[in-house]
Amino acid sequence: MLIEVAGENALIVYFGETANPQVSARVQQAVDLLSQTMGDALVDLVPSYASLLVIYNPLVTDHFAVKRQIRALQYAEESDQPQTGNLIELPVYYGTDAGPDLQSLADNAGLTTNEVIQIHSEMEYRVYAIGFAPGFAYLGEVDERIAAARLSTPRLKVPRGAVAIADRQTAVYPAVSPGGWNLIGLCPIRMFDPAAEPTMPVQVGDRVKFAPISKQEFLSLGGEL
Amino acid sequence: MSLAETGFKVLQPGLLTLIQDAGRFGYHRIGLTNGGPLDMASFRWANQLCGNPEGTTALEVSIGGLVMEAQLDTYFAVTGANLPLKVNGVELEGWQTHAIKAGDRIELGFTQAGARAYLAVAGGFSIPVSFASSATVTREGIGGLTGDKLQQGDFLPCAPHATKAMYRLAAAYRPSFSQQETLRLVLGYQHASFDNVQKRLFFSSEYRLTDRADRMGFRLEGQAVRSSLTGILSEGICHGAVQIPADGQPIVLLNDRQTIGGYPKIGSVISLDTAKLSQLLPGSCIHFEEVSIEQSHNLICLAAHRFANTPLERIA
């Protein structure tokens, strides 16, 4: 564990140098423990792949005290860690009409579109981080066979619910936004709804599995093409 | 007129007027950014002049152009950027409380120095909170009336106040706005990936503020500095973080920044100075100066002490 100053009111804790489920579980444990122990000294936490940004109130505490608190965290046993988080199943309508990059991704990978769908949906992904936009969950890691570089020119408008791949990450766009990821399908579940409780179906540390559905099922679940 | 119907009618929204409270905290985990006033000091003074608690909902007026009609009797104050303030065509001073009657017309002209003004009313605007804050973040469509900047015809509800003490902040305590600032920065994050030569270039060079400056981040232009890293695993970004993309031009990330990102960062500008940065107009000159984390804490505590102990002059 490496703790560095990030700014006047923030420390960043690195739990590893690469993303993997063990490191991610440590990040998540630290989120839980610091939320319970820091009280009004804590302003916000930003968990990501292998790091945790701890934002504190410098009128209440200082960086020495926060560092001490972080170092004193008591983690659970290693063996328990990768099991943390809920398993959430997200339905996806995969198709060239729902995912404009499905065909080219398959062609570049030397696979059929059905093989891409099968490979993408048989894997269980971990929610490593949420950011970029409210509810945008970074899921990893996709099978190397279907990993794909970002588009050279990002789209100005990616539809809400677009299921996408970039490198070995996959995600569901929570809202219409610009984006350079490869689009392979659409998910009818809202990934961020400010009026809902909870506002997001997933949180960092959860596991996600995609379930292929037909166009008919997609439409009956409220999806729009 | 019932309580719920009193407030201000927006006749002209100005270039960019946003409903803001102190900001949204505790929601980075679901990807929500902070929002909140870019110049926290001016925002706090506006509320203080109206006798409001810290963080009461007010307006951040960028560049100017706001015209509102009061539909109640109350008190208001304008702080921050120097812009002409008129009520019913009569010019009034900033940095002091003014009484206003139903039917009065408040006009904020365009800035003559500084970039952002703050308008507070007694008791604050009654805006429903989303995620524990009224702060508007247009990129996320969250906060304010509809998640957007003020529009012509918007109605800003607030409660009337018939009697209230009135105050003025003496000129000596008001910030001055210039065309150049030195921003104090705490080295942090990936600073070790900038070698000594790159750091010296960064701290000794003059940067200009480009017109690509919004509430998410201010892009600067000048001497390029290089990190030895080509990319990093995406990680949390704190307020004031200075990220250096491959072109070597610094971007200072502010209140509406994305919560996580993957560019190398040399450190973070302290909040007292991001407030100054946010008052600069494109073309302004910027220098960076290194401060230690201990110095920055000292500066924050001294500023808090000074704010708490600066007397307002009672004028009525």
TrEMBL record, chain A:
InterPro entries: CT_C_D, Cyclophilin-like_dom_sf, PxpB. It holds the Pfam family CT_C_D. Residues 1-202 form the Carboxyltransferase domain. The keyword Ligase does not apply. The keyword ATP-binding applies. It comes from Neptunomonas concharum. It comes from the Bacteria. PANTHER family: 5-OXOPROLINASE SUBUNIT B (PTHR34698). Its EC number is 3.5.2.9. Keywords: ATP-binding, Hydrolase, Nucleotide-binding. One of its GO terms (molecular function) is 5-oxoprolinase (ATP-hydrolyzing) activity. It is an enzyme of class 3 (hydrolase). This is 5-oxoprolinase subunit PxpB.
UniProtKB/TrEMBL annotation, chain B:
Gene3D superfamilies: Cyclophilin-like. Residues 29-307 form the Carboxyltransferase domain. The keyword Nucleotide-binding applies. The keyword Nucleotide-binding applies. Keywords: ATP-binding, Hydrolase, Nucleotide-binding, Transferase. Signal peptide: none annotated. GO terms for molecular function: ATP binding; hydrolase activity; transferase activity. PANTHER family: 5-OXOPROLINASE SUBUNIT C, CARBOXYLTRANSFERASE DOMAIN-CONTAINING PROTEIN. This is Biotin-dependent carboxyltransferase.
